[in-house]
Amino acid sequence: MSNPRTRADWQAMADGLVLRTQAFIDGRYVDAADGRTFDCVSPIDGRVLGKIASGSEADIDRAVRAARRSFEAGGWSQARPVKRKKTLQALVALIERHADELALLESLDMGKPIDDARNVDIAATIRCFGWTAEALDKVYGEVAPTGHDELGLITREPLGVVGAIVPWNFPLLMAAWKLAPALAMGNSVVIKPSEKSPLSVLRLAELVAEAGIPDGVFNVVPGFGKEAGEPLALHMDVDGLVFTGSTAVGKRLLQCAGLSNMKRAYMECGGKSPNVVFADAPDLGKAAEAAASGIFYNQGEVCTAASRLLVERSIQEEFVARVVEAGRKMQPRHPLEPGAPMGAMVDEGQTRRVLDYIAKGQAEGARLALGGNRLQTVEGGCYVEPTVFDDVRPDHAISREEIFGPVLAVIPFDDEAQALRIANDTEYGLAAGVWTANLSRAHRMARGLRAGSVWVNYWDGGDMTAPFGGYKQSGNGRDKSLHAFDKYTEMKATWINLGG
Asked: What is the rounded CA–CA span in Å between residue 483 and residue 485?
């Protein structure tokens, strides 16, 4: 997408926005059952954007009951695949038409640069819904190999009511990764967006209705984790639960699934991804630029952030200097300013968390090579400069714990075996990168790395055709690709006696 707007243009558009702040249940916007709201605060400048309906167990139950009614009615769950496909394609057209508005909501709500919101997040959301819509009528059943007197059919049926809990860092895109395949397979959905960034998903609900998806099929209940998220996870009439967020919350949701009705539960959780650079990397300049953007993009608020940079000791000094130089060019600016490389942290709490980790890194003895400070980019806003720690030990907290901010930990290594050992020495396993010109080493590392995605001479590769998810405590199940449909369907075996 091109972006000819200026900061003044975006601000004027922001001033004219009418925000959707109520829950969306059974085809209409409604207040929370108890009337409670919470402030939606922009991290750009601390301004209150609006008062959002604060959902509770009563609202979750109302939404789940609407979802169940719509599922049992069959208007969506039993519709021909080609009908669901055309309806989702209509939704894609509406998202495209409102791309600027949706991008602006994301930027105001969670502080990301408007260019990233429009050209990455919303563009990828459109691709997700479009690809999934095109794929849904290509999902076939199977015929089992049998004798002539029997017929074995393997068919897929929609799961039923799906509860989705999505994070604040990519509000609409992470929602799309769940919603597109869930809706494509005929399910009804109740989604709880993060209380830190609910605006774009609340606006999406209106577009879903306009596209022609029946009332009750898509419901949005904003609110906090304990008050709305856990009741959704514990609800006895939710058949499947999907989540993207922290590992700690993912573990709690798995407990809720077990404590309730053993609902299918798929968690995409945290990461502490290693980016391994060998001395024979084909282009150290390109690798350094990727190392910087891999951690500083979206203010480091990315589950696959390249937060651990493992560098072969023989090139450590030169390579870290290159990364620092690249990082200096990525200072935070006002998110509505076109070309801003970084924006604001999502809120004050996350800002303090990042600064606490920076202080911890200094206390542990790592060398601060860049940044480390809070900035007053915009008065009242939440901004932290790109930060690089060199000579980090694998046992340092900044090397082991997910910070979710623009903080890079550089760890030296001496050989391939040590690099692989350090890379895998983590409770996470979401993504990893390898930079080398040695084809055999690239394959050895890719096989040895315990991660759901491995990128060679690249960072953050892949598209809708490739599955995404993690090993170990980075979660289970996969988003994207045809494999995502597995989470939203039940597989049924039907065995027919043809012998009379």
From this structure: 5
Backbone phi and psi for residue 337, each to the nearest 5 degrees, phi listed first:
-85, 115
- Portions of the chain given CATH number 3.40.605.10: 7-269
How far, in Å, CA of 23 to CA of 378, rounded? 31
Question: Which residues are part of the catalytic machinery?
Answer: 268
- The tokens describing 198, both together, are 């609910």
Distance of CA 67 to the CA centre of its chain: 24
Which H or E run contains 74? Answer: none
* C-alpha–C-alpha distance, residues 312 and 294, integer Å: 18
Residues of the chain with pLDDT under 50: 1
Angle between helices 284-296 and 316-328 (to 10 degrees): 50
Q: Assign 3-state DSSP to the chain and report helix, strand, coil percentages, each to 5.
A: 40, 20, 35
Rounded to the nearest 10°, the torsion over CA 278, 281, 287, 288 is: 60
- Neighbouring residues of 2: CB distance < 8 A, sequence distance ≥ 6: none
- Maximum C-alpha span of the chain: 81
- 111, 335 contact by CB (below 8 A): yes
Cite the beta strand spans of 422-477 per DSSP E: 431-435, 453-456
The domain defined by 7-269 carries CATH number 3.40.190.10: no
Chain segment 449-469, per-residue pLDDT in tens: 999 999 999 999 999 999 999
Q: Give the tokens for residue 11.
A: 């601000």
Predicted confidence at residue 499, as pLDDT, reads 87
Q: How do residues 262-288 score in pLDDT, each as one tens digit? A: 999 999 999 999 999 999 999 999 999
Distance of CA 405 to the CA centre of its chain: 15
DSSP state of 303: T
Tokens 């560098």 sit at which residue? Answer: 311
CATH 3.40.309.10: which residues of the chain? 274-462
Residue type, 179: L
Please state, in angstroms and rounded to a whole number, the distance separating the CA atoms of residues 162 and 184. 12
| Cα–Cα distance for residue pair 90/180, rounded to 1 Å | 13
pLDDT in tens, 40-94: 999 999 999 999 999 999 999 999 999 999 999 999 999 999 999 999 999 999 9
Name the helix (H) or strand (E) containing 30: strand 28-30
Q: 6-36 burial by CB neighbour count: b if 16+ within 10 A, else e?
A: ebeebeeebeeeebbbbbbbbbebeebbeeb
Question: Per CATH, is 274-462 categorized as 3.40.50.720?
Answer: no
Integer angstrom CA distances of residue 163 from 30, 193, 407: 19, 11, 33
At 480, give phi and psi (nearest 5°).
65, 165
Count other Cβ atoms within 10 Å, centred on residue 317: 11
